[in-house]
């Protein structure tokens, strides 16, 4: 019974993590992953079959979140590079305009 309560806590953290990732709140998602990690460890090496089924669902959600995080990181990197280039261009303009 203790594992059932624990897996439900893990499930709720996972769903909260999924929501945080969906809205791009990666800081919150990381915090929730950190909070969830010791709960997963507490399940032990041989959880019951019903808990294993829920763990597979959690794994699928984690895989989707990981892919979303990878894509978001690439997009943010591209935006950063574009912003840096725009900043350099504005600086060049100012140098010419004031020159």
UniProtKB/TrEMBL annotation:
Top-level taxon of the source organism: Bacteria
Pfam families: FliT
Broad class of the protein's primary localization: cytoplasm
This protein's UniProt keywords: Bacterial flagellum biogenesis, Chaperone, Cytoplasm
One BP annotation, GO: bacterial-type flagellum organization
Cellular localisation: Cytoplasm, Cytosol
Name of the protein in question: Flagellar protein FliT
Organism annotation: Paraburkholderia atlantica
């Amino acid at each position: 019974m203790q594992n059932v309560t624990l897996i439900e806590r893990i499930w709720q953290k996972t769903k909260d993590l999924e929501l945080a990732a969906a809205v791009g709140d990666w800081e919150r998602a990381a915090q929730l992953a950190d909070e969830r990690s010791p709960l997963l460890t507490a399940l032990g090496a041989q959880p019951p079959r019903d808990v294993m089924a829920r763990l597979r669902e959690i794994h699928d959600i984690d895989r989707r979140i990981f892919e979303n995080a990878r894509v978001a990181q690439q997009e943010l990197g591209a935006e950063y590079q574009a912003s840096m280039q725009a900043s350099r261009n504005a600086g060049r303009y100012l140098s010419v305009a004031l020159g």
